[in-house]
Amino acid sequence: MARSIITLTTDFGLADGFVGAMKGVILGISPDAAIVDITHEVPPQDVRAGAYALDAAWDAFPPGTVHVAVVDPGVGTDRLPIAACGPGATFVGPDNGTLSYVLARAGARPDAAPFEAASVALPDGWTAYHLTERAY
Questions:
Q1: The domain containing residue 57 runs over which residues?
Q2: What tens-digit pLDDT sequence spans the chain (136 residues)?
Q3: Which of 5, 92, 98 is nearest to 46 (CA)?
Q4: 74 belongs to a structural domain
Q5: Residue 23's domain is classified under what CATH number?
Q6: If 117 and its partner were Cys, which of 35, 46, 47, 128 is the partner (CB 3.0–4.6 Å)?
């Protein structure tokens, strides 16, 4: 069986442990995943730049890749993440436009579905907020 590939595009930066924490949670869920960093240097909360960075890279990856994008000025709010499947790729990110370019170009289903982050196995006491909040 081929190894799962998960890409990350964020505005977290690399000066602290947030990228590492996110990768740790992913590996706790899927220990054999190959995690590839597209970038963590999207300007803070710049949804358009995050959308562009993901769109510039996603189709270079093999079919079946899961692309996770976290660039969200509304982090910590009630906004739910969305997941959308296109031919050969799955995209996960906030419902704020970060996925807009790839969804249009990838032919992903327009009925991208929100999901409860609580359905993802996070460490005890953690929420999605713990993975995405950082000092700006």
A1: 5-68+86-132
A2: 678 999 999 999 999 999 999 999 999 989 999 999 999 999 999 999 999 999 999 999 999 999 999 998 877 777 778 888 877 899 999 889 999 999 888 776 645 555 554 455 555 555 544 444 443 3
A3: 98
A4: no
A5: 3.40.50.10790
A6: 128
